[in-house]
Amino acid sequence: xxxxxxxxxxxxxxxxxxxxxxxxxxxxxxxxxxxxxxxxxxxxxxxxxxxxxxxxxxxxxxxxxxxxxxxxxxxxxxxxxxxxxxxxxxxxxxxxxxxxxxxxxxxxxxxxxxxxxxxxxxxxxxxxxxxxxxxxxx
Length: 138
Fold this sequence. Notes:
Blueprint: H1 17-33, E1 62-67, E2 73-75, E3 78-80, H2 85-95, E4 100-106, H3 111-123, E5 128-133
Parallel strand pairs: 1-4, 4-5
Antiparallel strand pairs: 1-2, 2-3
């Protein structure tokens, strides 16, 4: 005897090929129409030194602040605590009016020490020029 309510066993499958075609066409469309941004970074190269002919006949006196590779500071060859560099520079500026301040830093010195000394000088209104000393033979 046959059952009247039985359903035929149909295994209907969905063909995925047209959907894949559409996905690949959309992918190609978005790749072709995409706009890529040209990002520019900060240029950290130092300018070349000025020619020898630009040196004035009577140069200003200079106060040299040096930070060596082990983060020890000196002001005009006198050893100074890095936290007291600003006071030593201000004292020498009182003696040498209109002197330029040159901040020489060894390449191996920590950036933290350089930033602390430079910020301390800048906050007191003393403008300084920065020189990074490279290792010999490098």
